[in-house]
Structure to design on (110 residues):
DNA sequence: CCCGTGACTCTAC
DNA sequence: CGTAGAGCCACGG
């Protein structure tokens, strides 16, 4: 596994439980803009069981897996287990969080 | 080297 | 809001 992959996975692991991030955002935070598809491919081949891959969604908040597929249900199940509202294969945020607010949350000092 | 294939994204309408 | 269409990028045939 190269350094870029490791960085991507680190960003994914940094997503707090109950929060989500888009593939493109993950790539951007890892310093690899326009690599969204690559992030998806990476998650698909990742073996680390502790990796919170389910917290990564499409930019519009929808589950990336085809609706009805095994992965789709698995992701919905995991998200709901963390208290995330999912309806029609899409994550619902009652109060959409601004990008800056999410930034502050993710990068806030422990 | 060209072509197809995605757990993608952005812009127009 | 939702749907095309084009763009994008790593990879394999």
């Amino acid at each position: 596994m190269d350094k870029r992959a490791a960085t991507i996975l680190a960003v994914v692991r940094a997503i707090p439980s109950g929060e989500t991030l888009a593939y493109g955002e993950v790539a951007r935070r890892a310093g690899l803009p326009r690599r969204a598809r690559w992030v998806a491919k990476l998650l698909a081949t990742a073996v680390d069981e502790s990796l919170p891959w389910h917290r990564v969604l499409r930019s519009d908040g929808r589950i990336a897996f085809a609706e009805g597929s095994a992965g789709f249900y698995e992701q919905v199940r995991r998200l709901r287990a963390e208290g995330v509202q999912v309806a029609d294969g899409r994550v619902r945020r009652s109060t959409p969080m601004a990008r800056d607010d999410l930034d502050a949350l993710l990068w806030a000092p422990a």
Q: What stands out?
A: Chain A has five helices and four strands. The beta strands of chain A are 21-22, 56-57, 85-87, 90-92. The domain at 3-107 of chain A is CATH 1.10.10.10 (Arc Repressor Mutant, subunit A).
